[in-house]
Structure formats: C-alpha cells, structure tokens
Amino acid sequence: MTHTPARSHLTLGAGGEFDAIRAMLRVWGGQATGIGDDAAVMPLPEGESLVASTDASFEHVHFRREWLTPREIGARAAAAALSDLAAMAATPVGLLLALGVPAAWRIELDALAHGVGEVAAAALCPIVGGNVSRAGELSLTITVLGTSPHPLERSGARAGDALYVTGLLGGPGAALDALLRGATPRDVERARFASPRPRIAEGRWLAEHGARAAIDVSDGLVADAGHLAAASDVQVVLDLAALPCVEGIAPESAASSGEEYELLVAFPSDERPDTEEFRARFGIPLTAVGRVTAGRGVSLEGRSDRVDLPPGHDHLT
Predict the structure, then answer these.
(1) H-helix segments, the chain
(2) pLDDT above 50 (res 69)
C-alpha cells in the first residue's frame, strides 16, 4: 500500500482562522502533513490513476445537533467522502477539510477534528489541507484523493453478472425514522447511523478478486442500483428476500435505507468471490443479492404487494 510521505507544516500567521487550524493540527498530530501552503503536493505511484471525490455535510440537511455528538458529525462526514474511494477500489492518499463554522460551534472544533481524524486514521489517509471560514450553519466539505491502477466504475456491469453487497442493511434508515419521530433508535441502528465505516480495504479486495463494477450505497440500495444500471446500460434485478438486513428490519425497508456506505458490486458469472474468505477477513458478510440482465432500470423479485420501487435519498429534496 502506498502512503503519502510526511511533509512538515509551514509556520502559520496570526488570526482567528489560523488559530483554528493550529488547534486542529494539535488534535491530528502526525496524521496531518504539509499544512500551510496554498495547495497540497502529493506524488502518484507510477502506473496509477488519481481518484478524487468531494462530499458535503450541512447542518439541518445531513444532521441535526440534537441527534449526534460533534465527534460523530465529523466522523460521518469523513466516512461519507472516503466511501466514494472505497467504491472505486482506491487507496486514500489525502483528505482536505473545508469547515464552515458558526460562532456557536467554535468550542466544538476539537471534537469535530477528532471525528474526522479518527476515520481518516482508520483508512490510513493523511490530512493534507483544507479551509476554515465563518458560516451561518455548520458545514463540512471533504475532498478525498486516492490512487488505483484499475479503478472500479459504475459503468462496468454486464448482462450475466452477479451482484453482491457488503455488510448488513437497514440500520441507518431505521435510526433516521426513529429520530424524525422523536423516538430513540435501537443501539444497533444508531451505531450504523452515527458511526458508518468506509469499506476501503474491502473495496480493494473485491477489485483484486474480480469485481468489475461498484457503487457505494449512500442513497439506498434500490436507488444506487438504479445509478449502476443507468451507467452500465443494463437492468439490475434485486432479490428482496436475499438482502442481508439488520435484525428486526424488513427487506423492503432495508432496500431504501440510505447512508449505509456499504458496497454494491458486480462480478462476472465465472468469477464469483469467496464469500467465506471475505467474512473471515473483514468480519462482515458479502451476500449475493441479484443479477444483471439486458434491459434498463431496476426490477425487484420477492416483493409482496408493493407496486412502486422504494424511494432513495434525493439530495435536492
């Protein structure tokens, strides 16, 4: 695995913005590298492509202060961004954090930084830059950079492929439903909502073992299967009865649960992954959930009287 060489920080000038950066650097320690210049400089391994993604988390859109601790808010924002690298089977080489901070949140900078730092550290991803600005509501915009010799893309699925999903589904959706009702989620549901884990190592393993298309489940399994189908110009057939669900959650609910950050991957029919090896290595299941056929869109098998496909998350509604 390739790591970005550590670079010394530049001496920062005076001012509130730079005081905030210094405070976060004390939290991150040696995990942050080369902070203080106008841009980050990172070498790329020979023969690999740069993989980049940006994800934003806004107060009252992606989270509410009464639902999550500041540490959890930072961790979720980092996990959401890094999950995009996982879906591309990329090795992280850098994370940039742009913070919009209201006055009421300034005392929480250390906790937010701890959350971002913990998830980045687990993914072996250095923090290489960013920005801090005053804002009306808290926002965390995270850009992640990675490298891969053969990035997985959404457009690689072909008719005849088998579809697999990592982990268990339904926890974040159930937790969000409970929170919106003013109820307390079950511990297992809240843990999946508050502390998602980007499947970085899992994505690389899947690519190394023959996967040829992937997408992370952020908008809901059915919705993201639809994105994969559209990009590959195929039809995705999902078997509801086969979905790996958190205990007590119905497959129909699991199919629409967003912010899972699990991976949906397509394998050629003659190159199926060893699901027992995957579980032994990563401690989570890898479950066959459907197939790819000629056609377009998403079709569900194993549903009862449902007429419409379960909706996914729409970032503009």
Answers:
(1) 16-28, 70-87, 109-122, 171-180, 187-194, 200-208, 221-232, 251-256, 275-282
(2) yes
Specify the fold of 154-301.
Phosphoribosyl-aminoimidazole Synthetase; Chain A, domain 2 (3.90.650)
Average pLDDT over the chain reads 89
Task: Determine which of 39-48, 115-124, 147-156, 277-286 has the lowest per-residue pLDDT on average.
Answer: 39-48
Residues 6+ apart with CB under 8 A from 45: 2, 147
State yes or no: pLDDT of 271 exceeds 70.
yes
User: How far is residue 146's CA from residue 142's CA, in Å, rounded to a whole number?
Assistant: 13
Select from 3.40.50.300, 3.30.1330.10, 3.90.650.10, 3.40.50.1110 the CATH code of 16-148.
3.30.1330.10
pTM passes above 0.90: no
- Domains of the chain by residue range: 16-148, 154-301
| Contacts with 255 (C-beta within 8 Å, 6 or more apart), sequence order | 169, 220, 221, 222, 238, 240, 243, 300, 310
What is the rounded distance in angstroms from the CA atom of residue 70 to the CA atom of residue 288?
Answer: 36
Instruction: Sort strands 235-239 and 297-301 into parallel, antiparallel or unpaired.
Output: parallel
Is the alpha carbon torsion for 294, 264, 313, 148 positive or negative? negative
In the predicted structure, residue 309 carries a pLDDT above the cut 60: no
Give yes or no for residue 168 having a pLDDT over 90. Answer: yes
Q: What one-letter code names the amino acid at 198?
A: P
